[in-house]
């Protein structure tokens, strides 16, 4: 006596394969994504292109030929070079200071439950959501009331004030995937509080800390509104470019912008590779 054979069933299609097929059926979404990316990158591409423009006068609005002259004479305008140095050094100081101040805040918000936690959250998001002109005017009023002369130092303080919330929120988001039992295991094995933090907690938070520091650096270099309120006689790169736009922006501005953009890409890429290496 034989039992009837059961019909063979096809093996289930992997979920990844289903997702790939669905993606192929939506070419419009892919085209839309590429169009948005092209629209976002178009100004950067124009800036890079006009860094090679062989202009014959002061106007750098029309393409007149290819040249590497502006890369060879990148620092030919002393005031522009000083403004770039001011922006880079301010951004570096701000990134370090904001990271040191914001990391403990993000660590506390992500690890502990305490009274006033909601108010701290509200304050951080309010500082990010507030218009820059409001924050710049408030800091200007504070410096005037305290009798602090505006200059390099007030720009640093102002940039740190609006960068700390970005670091705190980034580190707090990183804490969402943090496993506290790892630090407890280190403490059980004899590590002190500082040793456990340095060898266990900090390496796990490092991608978030590095992302916050890079974000602060980029925001500081890019800022114009808050800087214009509190700079005094100090001239940064955005302030110089805006003042030069009335008479004609020299091609060295495009070259410096290109180098800043490429430097940011290299640092961001290094951060991604570091995060992947630590994940492995």
Automatic annotation (TrEMBL):
<keyword id="KW-1133">Transmembrane helix</keyword>
<feature type="transmembrane region" description="Helical">
    <location>
        <begin position="196"/>
        <end position="221"/>
    </location>
</feature>
<dbReference type="InterPro" id="IPR051789">
    <property type="entry name" value="Bact_Polyamine_Transport"/>
</dbReference>
<keyword id="KW-1003">Cell membrane</keyword>
<dbReference type="InterPro" id="IPR035906">
    <property type="entry name" value="MetI-like_sf"/>
</dbReference>
<comment type="similarity">
    <text>Belongs to the binding-protein-dependent transport system permease family. CysTW subfamily.</text>
</comment>
<feature type="domain" description="ABC transmembrane type-1">
    <location>
        <begin position="84"/>
        <end position="271"/>
    </location>
</feature>
<keyword id="KW-0472">Membrane</keyword>
<protein>
    <submittedName>
        <fullName>ABC transporter permease</fullName>
    </submittedName>
</protein>
<keyword id="KW-0813">Transport</keyword>
<feature type="transmembrane region" description="Helical">
    <location>
        <begin position="255"/>
        <end position="274"/>
    </location>
</feature>
<keyword id="KW-0812">Transmembrane</keyword>
<dbReference type="InterPro" id="IPR000515">
    <property type="entry name" value="MetI-like"/>
</dbReference>
<feature type="transmembrane region" description="Helical">
    <location>
        <begin position="88"/>
        <end position="110"/>
    </location>
</feature>
<feature type="transmembrane region" description="Helical">
    <location>
        <begin position="152"/>
        <end position="175"/>
    </location>
</feature>
<feature type="region of interest" description="Disordered">
    <location>
        <begin position="1"/>
        <end position="21"/>
    </location>
</feature>
<feature type="transmembrane region" description="Helical">
    <location>
        <begin position="29"/>
        <end position="52"/>
    </location>
</feature>
<dbReference type="Pfam" id="PF00528">
    <property type="entry name" value="BPD_transp_1"/>
</dbReference>
<feature type="transmembrane region" description="Helical">
    <location>
        <begin position="122"/>
        <end position="146"/>
    </location>
</feature>
